[in-house]
What does this fold into?
Amino acid sequence: MEKVVVAMSGGIDSAVTAYLFIKEKRAVEGVFFILFDEPPNIELAKKTADFLRIKLHIEDLREDFKRYVINPFFERYKKGLTPNPCILCNKYIKFPALKRIADKVSANFFATGHYARVLKKNDKCFLLKGIDKKKDQSYFLYGINRLFLNQLLLPLGEYTKQQVKEIAQQAQIPSKVAEESAEVCFLKDKRYYEILKPASYGPIIEASTGKIIGQHGGIHLFTIGQRKRLGISSPYPLYVVKIEPAINAVYVDSKEKAFMKEFYVNQLNWLVEPETNSFTCDVKIRYAMNPEKAFVIIIDKDRVRVTFDEPQFAPTPGQSAVFYNDEVVLGGGIITETVQGF
It folds into this structure.
């Protein structure tokens, strides 16, 4: 009998993932990761495991999580970047830990409740978008080790979120299990800027004129495309269009100035090795957007230049750009700088 280790979060998605494997007559074991003090859903995960009658491993990963996710999260905000902790967690914490535990218990596969798919074709494995376009989470998985795809199972990629809810109801999985997790889990009910210590003040500059029109309380308070918390009166709506850490400045202007075509990406991870040094593909620069056509030029093994066919709103240093060929995730990396005319 094939054995699968499932990452259990206490939420409905991981519960249904484990349930589907049980229905397939596979041996299932769960694992709950303690990532920070007082994890809110550990009792829910235990309740789910008891309900499904599976063994639940408890793994304390707080030290690694702090080193690879929490500390970089705050350090990057201090540098005027906008990080994505979920991507860091998947790359450095969750998936390596799942692989390690699967090997330890002699499991054939490991699985999560992400809405994405793995396709095995001609002895190769590919990461694909989930069929539920509104819920597709392939964006968050581009950074994982591509060798993991050989053992990774993502059953929810074949379902919509509504179908998963219906399965949970029909299986009478306890209703409390159906809680959605927070985007930045370790912040709990706080905002990131409420935790960071006060930073040095600096100028707010109107990009089109170069004039200083205000002062800010720290570049960590801002991200590209932001409109709120600027504290400046203007005859037209102002948006953050650039952050310049070297001079501790925040540039603002009209929304049109936040649209850009060209940017650079570093810290690349390829799930499908490029066959040429330049190619056209679809690119996402944030989770909640439709992929847009772009031309990618490989500068070296860890840097590419991306040019959209049409300007896109707020490519943001620190966020990830993920490359797609239709449904297939090719890879991605971290946006490091944008090309602007000011």
